[in-house]
Amino acid sequence: MYLALAVAGFRTEASFRAQFWFLLLSGVLNVVARVSIWQSVFQHGTGSADISLPQMVTYAILGATVFSTWEASQLVREMGADIRSGNVVSHLMRPASYPVSLMARLIGGRAHETLLIGLPVAVVMGAVYGFQPPASLGHALLFALSVALSLFLLFTLATAVATIGFWVMDTLALDWFLRGTLALFSGGLVPLWFYPDGVANAVHHLPFAWIAFYPLAIYLGQLDLMESVVTLLYGLGWAVASAGLLALLWRAACRRMVVQGG
Amino acid sequence: MQTLSLYLYLVRLQLRTRLQYRANLLIGWVAQAFGYASVYGTIWIIASRFERLGGWVWPEIALMLGFHVLGYALGALFTFVQLRGMEELVRLGTYDTLMVRPVSPWAFLAFSGINIEYGGHIALGVGMIAWALPQLGIDWSVLTVAQLVASLISAALLTGATLTIIAAMALVLTRSRYLFGIYFDFWELSRYPLTIFALPLQLTLLSIVPLGYMAYVPVAALLGKPVPLIGAAAPFAAILAGPVMVVVAMLVWQACQRRYQGAGG
Amino acid sequence: MPPIIETEGATKWFAQKVPQSGFTGRLRNFLKPVTRDVKAVDGISFAIEAGEAVGYLGPNGAGKSTMIKMLTGVLVPTAGSVRVLGRVPHEERIVNARDIGVVFGQRSQLWWDLPLFESFELHRRIYRIEKGRFDRARAELVDMLQIAPFLERPVRQLSLGQRMRGEIAMTLLHDPKILFLDEPTIGLDVVAKDVVRKLISRVNRERGTTIMLTTHDLRDIEEICPRLIMVDDGKLLFDGPLTNLNASFGARRKLTLEFASEPATVMLAGAEPAGGEGVIRTFLMSDDRRSLVDIIAALKSDAELVDVHLHEPDIEEVIRTYYQSRQRQAAPSKRTG
Prior knowledge:
The complex is a heterotrimer. Chain A is mainly α. Helix content of chain A is about 80%, strand content about 0%. In chain A, helix 2 crosses helix 6, helix 3 packs antiparallel against helix 6 and helix 7 packs antiparallel against helix 11. Chain C is of the alpha/beta class. In chain C, helix 6 runs parallel beside helix 7. Chains in contact: A-B, A-C, B-C.
């Protein structure tokens, strides 16, 4: 059943064919911006001893495609609209867990976007700028696991943020907070190893780092296999914690709805 | 004169409606400023780690980012949210109700929908400019102050005109959402020094998608930094880009208006 | 005096996109779409004199709104000419807009979040109505349309009927010479419909405002408009007094006779037997000019007449008959083509 929802999420996306070319152009521009920055600082600036330009180009391409957080924003806005209009009640009456069906939809949309937009953009941009393979087979496998973890974390955090909408009713602001937090702490734009030491120490331990930074660091082999496994387990801990947080928030929201009589 | 007083009255009505929800407004300002500041934070991390980005140091970049967001907010105040919904206005026939009144539909939309959600943008922009300017050793004169103000107005006009052109296309194409999306993709490129991009992209941002004049060209001109392709013409180009786009936008708007088909039926 | 509204062969074609499939087709859809012309208004001519109240009737998609939009300067006619108060509306849209009022049944022009009177004040500024004149007009209209009780309430709290009254009052504040109403009673309940119809009719009679309203509800026209213009498929079907409609569409009166006992023979000159059994006989009258007395005088029957009932076809029936016959005509051609 949740699979059907994921497929429906995939299909809704597929029905907007005209959108395809615009999204492709959009993806290309996004990659160009990031790669241009790294080329500029590596070729004309001081560069970095720990990481090479081809690695940073790969980081930029993957960061702009596989780790796009667009759907999370969409989820917050859509759920906000559902809360405001009261539609959320009709969702709750269905014999399915609302958060889980949301997650199925998010994954469907994500899969669609990655396959139809992300992949072509990554291939084309990789051909233009060069692209590095994963550091090793082991790293590739752990990367795949870390992508799944990243999706789960992104979803639970976005839904938790959207659930706050039951109390504050202004999900547009919540979406901006979420986007800002992800831009600053997920490492999707700038890897954490470039962050000033003090800031980096803290950000390394926040759950947001597992949404983009750690998967990419694993892919590029910046962490050895042992470190990668430990990091993934640490991330799993965050996944459990954020799922717990979501469950708590969700139960409180449901109770609130019952009290208010829907 | 009566036209102006009508527009001021529309603005007053809109403000009164919006100020009914002050707390939300304030949260919105903070949230949007935080969203922008976070992205600027990542740019600061790059600039401070590598000292320069495209030959620009952080205070210079900060001035450009402040200029970018302020110019955008001043233009979008009158256009973005109002015109983003153009395809809806056409589809629901609301646009027709504007056309039967003795007013310019564009002006009516612009002023009656004035969007005060940009408070956060404006505060952030002004703050960054105020922080950056004293550190840059600009040789201030009446002329440079005039140049700063004029190019800021030009950036605002450029924003308003570009968004108007996209909305005018909704009158004919009935769909313009993707065009707004593409606009913002180029707009994001326009907050970095143009010199980091390859030549074709530099050329694009200075001609067919003239967002290079949003912040990079005017700030480079003010700081006396070399500007690719247009060189010494930069200060003049920065001041003229907005007004020129306004003329283009008016022509496009009129052409699209004549071809307008209504909601059908 | 020349007509206040005049159209000559007014025509509006819409370019409708024909979607192309396949990759190149999609690209083409975007760059240069293939289009097909749809004739929403197809060569319509009529003239309306000052002070008239004209109903513009037709089914959905007949091109009623398109006509209103051409007359108000929203749309540019593809061919033919349209003149309102001697002007070409789309060329002098703003000047024209000052002299007319337009009410759209489905789209409110009122300011949703603010009290009704604020919308009036905005209207004053848009139409540049001088303060003294505005106050007088406002007082008069508030009284006439009975909107005083909810003048202070935000528009979003008003019922649809109250809103329509507010809408009409606002549109009359600048004393327009012509009032266009596009489906003014759509969505209203029966009581509200009746109130709105009476008000529009009063506006026409007491203020002398020329009225042109589009509708697909015949009652609107029966109660407001002595003159009917009927369109279908973009073409003009009928233009004249409402009372002429029956004759022009060949609708016939139905005579029902009731006898004391079952008659063996019933002969009625100039009437066609249309069934009946037992003591009842019905006839369709071919000549609509004859009086009932003449008809009965011509009756030849062996039974005694008890009761006579003459049924006048109402417009609704006339028009329904017309559309049904049109569908019957259309159906076979679909099969062959």
